[in-house]
Design brief:
The protein is an all-alpha fold and 173 residues long. The protein has helices at 4-41, 47-63, 69-80, 84-97, 102-110, 130-149.
């Protein structure tokens, strides 16, 4: 016979895990937004704040991959430090998750009205299993994190680009 008590217990445990992931996502994303607010309020360029924001955004992505906000925000950070390839990469992910976000179109215009459709490097679903694709995404996030660490070693006192005004709409909170 089936033990329905075990099924109820598993369901409750699953709900607790999901609730914890949501809380971790919200904490990481809000910490990123706080770091970006601090960055915007400073009169001088502080790469540590961008790095802190980026690290928190990557943490948020790990918790809730279906949310476009961390991807678009990380894309903005990469845009600000002239890392257009990475900005486009994360902008494409955000666009796939929610193409109607005004920030997606705003940043797309700033990047030269790039196309956000068409095949991307990660569209090898016929060749790679889902697990391999997931491993590839984790490697890409780790590579991006290494790129973010290079923010600290920049010799300039100011970013090469100003923060995109219409793109950081999440900072209005």
């Amino acid at each position: 016979m089936y033990n329905f008590d075990n099924l109820v217990s598993v369901k409750k445990n699953t709900e607790k895990i999901e609730e914890k992931r949501i809380n971790n996502y919200e904490t990481a994303f809000n910490n990123a937004l706080l770091a970006l607010k601090d960055f915007k309020s400073k009169s001088s360029y502080d790469p540590q704040l961008l790095k802190k924001a980026a690290d928190n955004l990557i943490e948020a992505m790990g918790q809730k991959r279906s949310k476009p906000e961390p991807y678009i925000t990380l894309s903005c950070i990469f845009y600000m430090i002239n890392e257009d390839k990475l900005a486009i990469k994360y902008l494409k992910v955000a666009s796939e998750l929610n193409p109607n976000l005004p920030q997606v179109n705003e940043l797309r215009k700033l990047l030269g009205n790039i196309s956000l459709t068409g095949p991307s490097k990660d569209d090898n679903s016929n060749e790679l299993s889902k697990q391999s694709q997931q491993n590839e995404k984790v490697k890409n996030l780790e590579a991006s994190s290494l790129k973010i660490k290079k923010i600290d070693s920049r010799n300039t006192n100011e970013p090469k680009r100003a923060s995109p005004k219409g793109v950081f709409g999440f900072l209005k909170k």
